[in-house]
Design a protein that fits this description.
Blueprint (H helix, E strand, L loop, with lengths): L20 H8 L3 E5 L2 E4 L1 H20 L3 E2 L5 E3 H7 L1 H5 L4 E4 L5 E4 L4 H11 L8 E10 L14 E11 L2 H21 L4 E5 L9 E10 L12 E2 L3 E10 L7 E9 L6 H7 L7 E2 L2 H7 L8 H7 L2 E4 L7 E6 L4 E7 L9 E2 L7 H8 L9 E11 L1 H6 L2 E3 L5 E3 L1 E8 H11 L1 E2 L2 E2 L10 E5 L6 H16 L4 E3 L6 H11 L3 E5 L1 H4 L3 E6 L5 E5 H14 L2
Parallel strand pairs: 3-7, 12-16, 13-15, 15-18, 25-26, 25-27
Antiparallel strand pairs: 1-2, 4-6, 5-6, 7-8, 8-22, 9-10, 10-11, 10-19, 12-13, 12-14, 16-17, 19-22, 20-21, 23-24, 27-28, 28-29
Helix pairs in contact: 1-12, 2-6
C-alpha cells in the first residue's frame, strides 16, 4: 500500500477526554474515530489490526475443531423471556420495536440463540461434542461508556458455544478452549493471567477470566519492565525484627499485599503481637539470606521464612509476585501449591488518596490496572432446561445437554495490547497484528533518482514475498513521516536515503527499541524475510 492511496489519519496532539493510553493512541494513530458516546468508526489502519487478530482467532479455534457460524443480531424477545434473562440484564438490553409493534432485542450475547440452533440441529449424542463460534458485533446500553473501545455500546466479540452429553466431556472441551485462548494471546505477545470468576448473568458454576495486565513502568531502560499491575499480581516485602530472647538474632518474614498498596509497619507489629520494632530488610540482607540457593522462587521463600498474607488478597487460580527489595517478578505461581493454608491478618494497609478517590468516584476510576479480555463458562444444563434441549445418550436415556460458553472481547483485546506496548512516540505493535509489517521511508523520493529507483525495487520485492508493506510516497517533511510511522507503530522501518544509497546501503530501524542497522541493499529482503520467519 502507498500512502498516496491510503487514508492515513494521524493526530499530532493528545485528544481531549481520552483518559487512558490506548484510547489516546488509537485516536492519534488513526485506528478509530468517535461517532457518538460509546460508538466508534474503525478506520483502515484499525480494520487491518482487527482482521489480523480475527485471523489468529480463526486459526486457533479451527485447530480445536471449532466451526464458524453466524447468528442473527436481532433476537425475538420471547427467547429472552424463556431464559428469564431479560430481567437479569435489565437496562443494558437494547430493545427495538418493528412496524408491526413486535418487540426485539439487539443481542448482547447469544446463549439463547445458540441453544435454539442446537435444538434444531442436534438429534443424536453421536454428533457430540460440538464447538460452534462466531465473531459478531454485540450491543449493550452502557449507562456511561468509558475508556475508548474498552467500554462501548457496540463491540466485536468472539463467542463460542459447545454442547455435550456428559460433564466430563464439557470439562475436556473447557480445557481445550483454555489452550486455544492461551495460544491466541501468546501469539500477540499479550501478558495475561487466568483467574477464577463469578459466572454472573451467563450462568453456571465454573468460569474463568483472562485478564490483561498493565505495566507499572514503560521506561525502556527500567530494570523492572516485566512487572505488571493486575488484581492477581501481588507484592512481597521482606521484613525483619530482633528476637526478644536474643537481641543479636534477626528474624525474617515475608508480607504479601496487593501491588498498588503500601504497608504500615506499626500495624503489622501489633497484628503479630511482637514487642520489638519491625523494619524492612535491606536488599543486601535478602541476597545474603538466599545466597546458597540457585534461584529464588515462592516455594523456596515459604520453606525458609514465614509468609504472611493480607486479608484483602483474593485466592485466585494463579498469580505473580513482585519481590519488593529485589525488584524481580515471579510469575505463574499457584495457590495451595506454593502457599498451602495461608494465614491472613487484619487490615494494616496505609489509607491512600487513591482509595478515597475510588470511593468518591466509583464511575470514574482512573486507576484501573487490569482489563478483562476473555471469559469462559461451564454453564451446564441451565439453558437446556429452559429450552428443553435433550437427546438420548448411549444408554437410550433422555438427557439434557451440557453447554459451555466462551468469549473473547476482540476490540477490547486490541486496547489491551496497546496498553502493554507503547512509548513516548506511540504504539509498538507485536508483528502478528501490526497494521503493516514494514514501512519504507524514502528521503527525497521525488528529487533523487537513485532513491526513487531503489525504493520502488524494494517495494516490489516485499510485495512479491507477501510482506505487508506501507510505502511513504507523499512529498512530506521526513520528520513528519518518521513521527507518523513511530506513532502508528509499524515494527520495521526501511529508510532509503541519498547518502546511504550512494554506498549501496540502506538503513533498517526496529520500532521496538529504536535500534538501527545498516545493510547492503542486496541483503535487505533476505533480512526482512528472516525477521518474519522468527515470528511464525
Amino acid at each position: 500500500m502507498r500512502t498516496s492511496q491510503y487514508l492515513l489519519s494521524t493526530l499530532k496532539n493528545h485528544p481531549k477526554n481520552a483518559e487512558i493510553i490506548s484510547h489516546q493512541l488509537m485516536l492519534r494513530a488513526g485506528l478509530i474515530r468517535q461517532l457518538s458516546s460509546g460508538i466508534y468508526i474503525w478506520l483502515p489502519t484499525g480494520v487491518k489490526v482487527l482482521n489480523k487478530l480475527k485471523n489468529i482467532i480463526n486459526q486457533e479455534m479451527q485447530k480445536i475443531g471449532g466451526m464458524e457460524i453466524n447468528l442473527p443480531n436481532i433476537h425475538p424477545i420471547k427467547i429472552w423471556n424463556t431464559s428469564n434473562r431479560i430481567n437479569n440484564y435489565g437496562n443494558e438490553l437494547f430493545t427495538i420495536i418493528d412496524r408491526k409493534k413486535n418487540n426485539w432485542i439487539l443481542g448482547p450475547t447469544h446463549e439463547e440463540v445458540a441453544t435454539e440452533l442446537a435444538k434444531l440441529e442436534i438429534q443424536s449424542y453421536k454428533q457430540l461434542p460440538i464447538i460452534m463460534y462466531q465473531m459478531k458485533t454485540k450491543f449493550r446500553d452502557e449507562i456511561r461508556p468509558q475508556f475508548g473501545i474498552v467500554r462501548t455500546k457496540e463491540f466485536l466479540m468472539k463467542d463460542a458455544y459447545s454442547f455435550h452429553v456428559t460433564t466430563t466431556c464439557l470439562s475436556k472441551t473447557y480445557e481445550l478452549i483454555k489452550y486455544a485462548y492461551n495460544n491466541i494471546f501468546s501469539k500477540i505477545q499479550l501478558k495475561f493471567n487466568i483467574v477464577a470468576a463469578d459466572s454472573g448473568a451467563i450462568g453456571g458454576n465454573i468460569s474463568h477470566e483472562f485478564k490483561a495486565c498493565k505495566n507499572i513502568q514503560n521506561n525502556k531502560n527500567s530494570k523492572n519492565k516485566s512487572i505488571q499491575t493486575c488484581s492477581n499480581i501481588f507484592k512481597i516485602y521482606f521484613l525483619k525484627y530482633y528476637s526478644i530472647n536474643d537481641s543479636t538474632k534477626t528474624i525474617y518474614f515475608a508480607y504479601m499485599i496487593k501491588i498498588n498498596k503500601n504497608i504500615d509497619l506499626i500495624k503489622i507489629q501489633n497484628d503479630i503481637n511482637i514487642n520489638t520494632k519491625i523494619n524492612l530488610a535491606s536488599k543486601e540482607e535478602i541476597q545474603q539470606f538466599f545466597k546458597k540457593k540457585k534461584e529464588i522462587n515462592l516455594e523456596i521463600i515459604r520453606k525458609n521464612i514465614p509468609v504472611i498474607i493480607h486479608k484483602n488478597i483474593i485466592i485466585q487460580e494463579n498469580f505473580s509476585i513482585e519481590l519488593s527489595q529485589l525488584t524481580i517478578c515471579l510469575i505463574n505461581n499457584y495457590w495451595f501449591q506454593y502457599l498451602p493454608n495461608p494465614i491472613k491478618y487484619s487490615d494494616n494497609l496505609l489509607i491512600e488518596i487513591n482509595d478515597f478517590f475510588k470511593k468518591k468516584n466509583k464511575q470514574k476510576n482512573y486507576y484501573q490496572t487490569e482489563l478483562e479480555i476473555a471469559h469462559i463458562f461451564q454453564i451446564g444444563i441451565k439453558y437446556s432446561k429452559y429450552f428443553n434441549l435433550k437427546v438420548k445418550n448411549n444408554k437410550g436415556k433422555n438427557t439434557f445437554l451440557k453447554m459451555g460458553c466462551y468469549g473473547i472481547g476482540v476490540t477490547r483485546t486490541i486496547a489491551a495490547v496497546i496498553e502493554q506496548n507503547y512509548d513516548e512516540k506511540g504504539i509498538i505493535w507485536p508483528l502478528k497484528i501490526a497494521p503493516f509489517e514494514v514501512t519504507i521511508i524514502p528521503i527525497n523520493l521525488h528529487k533523487c533518482v537513485l532513491v526513487k529507483k531503489y525504493t520502488q525495487l524494494l517495494y516490489s520485492e516485499l510485495l512479491k514475498n507477501n510482506i505487508d508493506v506501507l510505502l511513504n510516497d507523499l512529498e512530506e517533511n521526513p520528520g513528519v513521516i518518521f513521527s507518523n510511522m513511530d506513532l502508528i507503530g509499524i515494527p520495521y522501518q526501511i529508510i532509503v536515503s541519498p547518502k546511504n544509497i550512494q554506498k549501496n546501503k540502506i538503513e533498517i530501524k526496529y520500532r521496538y527499541d529504536n535500534k538501527k542497522i545498516i545493510l547492503n541493499i542486496s541483503e535487505c529482503i533476505k533480512f526482512i524475510k528472516n525477521e518474519m520467519n522468527k515470528n511464525i
